[in-house]
Amino acid sequence: MRANRPARACGLLLLATSLAGCTQFLGGNAELPQRRWFKVNVEPMRNALENSERPYPFQIQIKSFDVSRAYNRNELIVRRDQYELQRDNLHHWMERPGDMFTDVVKQYLRQADLFTYIGGDRDFYERRPQYLLSGTIKAIERFDSGDVWAAHLAMSMELVRQEDGKVIWQDDFDAERTVFFPEMKHTVAAFSAILAEQMKKYIRQIDFVFLNKQRVGANGDGLPTITTDGDTNGALQDTSLRIDTDASDYELLPGKLAP
After folding, report:
1. Taking CA 249 as the corner, what is the angle to CA 243 and CA 253, rounded to the nearest 5 degrees?
2. CA 192 to CA 197: how far, in whole Å?
3. Which CATH number is associated with domain 54-202?
4. Residues 6+ apart with CB under 8 A from 142
5. Is the distance from CB of 135 to CB of 144 less than 8 angstroms?
6. Is 245 within 8 Å of 205 (Cβ atoms)?
7. How far is CA 78 from CA 149, 186, 245, 252, 253, in A?
8. In this structure, is the dihedral angle defined by the CA atoms of residues 87, 93, 99 and 101, taken in order, positive or negative?
9. Which residue(s) pair with 174 in the sheet?
10. Alpha-carbon distance 242 to 159, whole Å?
11. Of 24-28, 143-147, 199-203, which one has max mean pLDDT?
């Protein structure tokens, strides 16, 4: 037994030397990757629609947004190609995408001061809103080919009058923005910028619907009437159709895009 002690000691010395060498090879302070958490940012926005009569005297409920099943999770989703989606286990949303986007859209509408009261599902347990705004997130993913990155966001929204279930406004978008740096924060900043541009457009459209209603009253079915060029005289187009209007009356202010 004693004869084996020098050999055992020598073996332990070699093991310690090997471990020390590995530590040095890894840099001495090697750390495991840590999870990181992100959220979409609400951009400051200056609203300047001429003769707007905001806030309009209505209560609006922002219903919790639906999310396509593939994206309804806390991990950010990475698309490698048209066939492959991956969950990124190191990069997470602070909250589920449906809850996050519902809150962000609500903040944009409040920032624009569009209506006298804007609330979520919990705010309408004991009251009935005049209008419901709902939405669906069809895709929220990062394209990653290894040397090219992009943020892809696709959504739809509609505003429904509670009185008769009439859709008075609706729109959808499918947008992609190239990202020039691989860090995930730049992709999240791109998601924020895409949504900010769309909300800039949508706030003006909704404002125009209610402004036109205030100006010219209602037609036979109780809806305002407008044309695609914004003419309120002799208009024939119903506001339940998509309204393509210029969003130049709104200006995005510089702000921090993402943490």
Report:
1. 120
2. 9
3. 3.40.50.10610
4. 76, 77, 78, 79, 88, 149, 150, 151, 152, 179, 184, 187
5. no
6. yes
7. 10, 14, 33, 28, 30
8. negative
9. 154
10. 11
11. 199-203
Question: Would you place residue 121 in the very low, low, confident or very high pLDDT band (cuts 50, 70, 90)?
Answer: confident
Backbone angles phi, psi at 31, to 5 degrees: -125, 145
CA distance 72 to 141: 11
CB 77 within 8 A of CB 89: no
CA dist., res. 226 & res. 239, Å (int): 7
User: Which residue reads 């958490």 in tokens?
Assistant: 37
What the block records as the tokens of 195 is 């949504």
Q: Which two tokens stand for residue 222?
A: 């109780």
Digit-coded pLDDT (tens) for 223-257: 444 433 444 333 333 333 334 444 444 344 444 43
3-state secondary structure the chain: CHHHHHHHHHHHHHHHHHHHHHHHHCCCCCCCCCCEEECCCCCCEEECCCCCCCCEEEEEEECCCEECHHHCCCEEEEECCCCCEEEEEEEEECCCHHHHHHHHHHHHHHHHCCEEEEECHHHHCCCCCCEEEEEEEEEEEEEECCCCEEEEEEEEEEEEECCCCEEEEEEEEEEEEEECCCCHHHHHHHHHHHHHHHHHHHHHHHHHHHHHHHHHCCCCCCCCECCCCCCCCCCCCECCCCCCCCCCCEEECCCCCCC
